[in-house]
């Protein structure tokens, strides 16, 4: 049965809407304020969330900010004033649509049906992915190179310990894949694996996001919030892009690693945690230490155990096995039957520099397969999927950051600066792409 959370403080409107939803055979749970809604969201997963925008204890946008994974792509906003900036903000935070009160039944139910259909397709896709690769383990990693074999051997040994691990390597090499395999090969297997992309968190929210906060800690904090460390308790917390962590938060993270307790924002009461920390970065942290952007003591602590994953261009024997794997995956997703690669296309793939590494290779195959009506990938398919790199012979004269920035600029140019499409091609989130654009724009303006 479809479960709906209905947040509405006006009793009459809530009761009328609840009856209409239940007449459609939906299971409805009610909430009258942000605090009660937050408690329900923490305990349960809902298929649809209907939120009144303005409530006695604040704006329901707070829920979108606190529970992005649970509310994004499922939330409908109700408002008495659709002109307020808060509506735009709600959509930016992940709400699917908004309706003015009193909402028309046909419009609301059509929107609910659309959300359910889209999320059903997403769930089917996730199921298909899990059937192709049931879970990330060292046994189902795709590689043939001795370099990756050596890393897998080392990571397998580290997985059996409970030490913190730092994984280094360029964007897209598979750092999260390794972190998940480490978790699934450890004694914490079956417990929570919680990935957090530090590049997507605004500086002012880092402390509350990681360590949590108590009710009243700041304006709008209407209830207690368990930060990422508590959410991952007994399991593994994966902090990707650890080089983006602000200095003041780095000091607190070091304290957490040493003392194994966290302090919620504005709390003086220590809260014990049992979490394995795995971190990853594509930055040179030694250089970040020299520039005083990263604490040396934290780096030494994170480096107790470390892995370096080489870029795909340095292990070309992995390219074809990865291609065959992703062809199989996306054949299933798009109901195609691609079984081979022409010799010239294969040669191109082997010689292409793959600055986006495995992620770029995966997205390239993903962009080709839906349009195939025969069984072979050819050069004509590649020309529409890979941005030509006419300066690849000069790549040794550029830094890694310059490589990445140039590639992002080329993708933006090809897509007409369409952020959503560019982010999809690059295989990163929109906030992360905005962050990278901001970084190299500031660098250019210096």
CATH architecture of the largest domain: 3-Layer(aba) Sandwich
Number of E-state strands: 16
Give the proportion of residues in helices: 40-55%
Low-confidence stretches: 387-397
Structural category is alpha/beta
Strand order within the widest beta sheet: 2-1-3-6-7
Approximately what portion of the residues adopt beta-strand conformation? Answer: 5-15%
Assembly type of the shown chains? single chain
What is the mean predicted local confidence, pLDDT? 86
CATH domain fold name of the largest domain: Rossmann fold
What is the CATH superfamily of the largest domain? P-loop containing nucleotide triphosphate hydrolases
What is the overall silhouette?
A: globular
Largest sheet: 5 strands, parallel
Number of helices: 20
Domain module tally: 3
> Rg to the nearest angstrom?
24 Å
Distance between the termini: 57 Å
What is the CATH C-level name of the largest domain?
A: Alpha Beta
Tell me about this structure:
- The chain has 3 domains: 3-128, Rossmann fold (3-Layer(aba) Sandwich); 138-308, Rossmann fold, CATH 3.40.50.300; 313-445, Helicase, Ruva Protein, domain 3.
- The strands form 5 sheets. Strands 2-1-3-6-7 form a 5-stranded parallel sheet, sandwiched between helices. A 5-stranded parallel sheet has the order 9-10-13-8-14. Strands 4-5 form a two-stranded antiparallel ribbon.
- By secondary structure, the chain is an alpha/beta fold.
- It has helices at residues 11-23, 34-43, 61-66, 68-71, 85-92, 105-132, 146-159, 175-184, 206-211, 228-231, 247-259, 285-290, 296-302, 319-334, 343-351, 357-368, 379-382, 400-414, 419-426, 430-445; strands spanning 3-7, 27-31, 48-52, 54-55, 58-59, 75-79, 97-100, 165-168, 193-197, 236-240, 261-262, 271-272, 276-281, 306-308, 340-341, 376-377.
- The longest helix is centred in the first third of the chain and has 28 residues, at 105-132.
